Amino acid sequence: MKKVSDICLNKIKEFEGLRKEAYLDAAGVPTIGYGHTHGVRMGDVISEYWAEMFLKADLYDVEKQVDSLGLDLNQPQFDALVSFAFNMGFYKLKTSTLLKTIQEGGSMRAIKKEFKRWVYAGGQKLRGLEKRREWEARRFFEPDEMEPMKRRDWSDFHKKN
Q1: Buried b / exposed e along 86-117 (16+ C-beta atoms within 10 A)
Q2: Residue 146 above 80 pLDDT?
Q3: Residue 93 pLDDT class (50, 70, 90 cuts)
């Protein structure tokens, strides 16, 4: 199963921010740590260690969900879709015009446009969501950092000189 890159993990942490005390997010959902919502109650307090553990567990679930779509994604594309689904929810990704556009091989312009439609929470346009969607749209079209390593013929690596 594919995993998010450190680039994506760090960006999600940046976008979510670390909150050690439970709060209501923009949609009114009790949230703690780096965007963790499962079982959170107002008044809960968390350490940075547990925030990181919850984030990794939450991301594992989202990685499996994005993987289940059966798309042939490179690392940046996978990162962008996991970030989106982590933030908006997998159901919204699965039923979105964004996903349909990707599946149909839409143009860069069309796909970026679809990412940038998802900037509202609680009926309000949020600058934080605009920044996140801009990053996801850019990340989706970045070259895969690992592609040169995947294409390299490693058979000469073990040859003795």
Answers
A1: bbbebeebeebebbebbeeebeeeebbebbee
A2: no
A3: very high
Average pLDDT over residues 137-154: 77
Q: Which of 16, 63, 114, 136 is catalytic?
A: 16
Interval 48-79: pLDDT, tens? 999 999 999 999 999 999 999 999 999 999 99
Question: Is residue 80 over pLDDT 70?
Answer: yes
Indicate the DSSP class of residue 96. S
Identify the burial level of 20 via C-beta atoms within 10 angstroms of its C-beta, where 0-12 means exposed, 13-18 middle and 19 or more buried. Answer: middle
Torsion of CA 38, 41, 44, 49, to 10 degrees: 0
Using CA atoms, how far apart are residues 90 and 78, in angstroms rounded to an integer?
13
Reference 145, options 101, 81, 79, 60; nearest CA is 79
The residue written with tokens 């960006």 in the block is 11
Q: Would you call 16 a catalytic residue per the annotation?
A: yes
